[in-house]
């Protein structure tokens, strides 16, 4: 019984049937046994590339107008990348059937060399970091192609060093670093994808709830990634007992501000006292909260500048939230008129000016009230409401003063100002 008959009994029976049908091939039976495994792999490789290029071309040409969740990601995948994953799946199938995979291994390595730059360019890495990752991957693939990677892995896996009571190997550390990087990237991109596709613009979730979900997902994901990395290295979590005590002391002394900001950020998100979209004033700064992070919130001022406010500051300092329960803000404008003026006419004019302004809410109705009989004027207050404080209050206030000035000029209403008369005593 030949080796081919032992390793590939089903295929051997098929060849025997063909030889029975074509006896002329019997003298080439040995060569056929040698060529068939390679031919099957080569045909599989060719079909894989044909299917990959056809599929990618079809997706890019026939579905650009369709908007689905996975389509933008699928359209970015190159034909080489699609073929690479298909070849890896095919190699797994061949190994399960105990079939030779020599040519598939070579095709996988060569395809990976071609597709790695494209895959790395899809990551958020900087240009310099991408180049380093590509070069490192090419070196590993070159070692795999020349079958020199296994001795290197064996050497790295046989060299040991001790950390506390745990014995580690360089190969275990390398695997842990690679796995941790992949997990962190997956968690970061995954939460960003969920926020962009499912949470952003979803009215079922408030802005603070969306932020809480994203931050909680990030923290849980990073914690799981860290624990998985420790398990890959083989470090017992009990070994971190001393490290945990040292970390607690560090938090108590040097890191209390950082931890305070982290905890304050979580409290702000949970109690919803400050949330994205709120308009607040803190000290001399006035603006809209555009984003909330673990350590700080971002406030965009009216001049376009963005102010980073530590979360702890918002917890310990008096903050005016113009849109805490609702976005309505009352504005008061003070103006004085001469005692010779028709006070009822002045009151009606002020209310008319407010009613004619499109930016002012008409419910509640703007009101003009007499507040005082001063030394040189009768003082009025014009009170009205705005529902968009994020667009600024100063512009509306300035426009109202200008409209009042013009209307008083047209109606002949005098705005008095303090005057002083000096009597010079004669020296004689």
Number of domains: 4
What's the overall geometry? Answer: elongated
Q: In sequence order, what are the helices and strands, one letter per element?
A: HHHHHHHHEEHHHHEEEEHEEHEEH
Helix content: 55-70%
**Mean of all residue-level pLDDT scores:** 76
What does this structure look like?
This protein has helices at residues 3-7, 9-21, 29-62, 71-76, 79-96, 102-121, 127-145, 149-158, 170-199, 207-233, 241-253, 256-271, 311-316, 343-356, 394-411, and strands at residues 161-163, 166-168, 279-282, 285-292, 296-301, 306-310, 320-321, 329-337, 367-373, 378-386. Helices cover 58% and strands 13% of the residues. The protein folds into four domains: 3-147, no CATH class; 184-254, no CATH class; 275-321, SH3 type barrels; 329-411, Alpha-Beta Plaits (2-Layer Sandwich), CATH 3.30.70.100. By secondary structure, it is α+β, with helices and mostly antiparallel strands. α3 (29-62) runs antiparallel to α5 (79-96), α3 (29-62) runs parallel beside α6 (102-121) and α9 (170-199) runs antiparallel to α10. The N and C termini lie far apart (148 Å). A five-stranded antiparallel sheet has the order 6-5-4-3-7. A three-stranded antiparallel sheet has the order 8-10-9, with helices on one face. It is elongated, with a radius of gyration of 38 Å. A hairpin with a 3-residue loop joins β4 and β5 (296-301). The model has no long low-confidence stretch (mean pLDDT 76). The protein is built from 15 helices and ten strands.
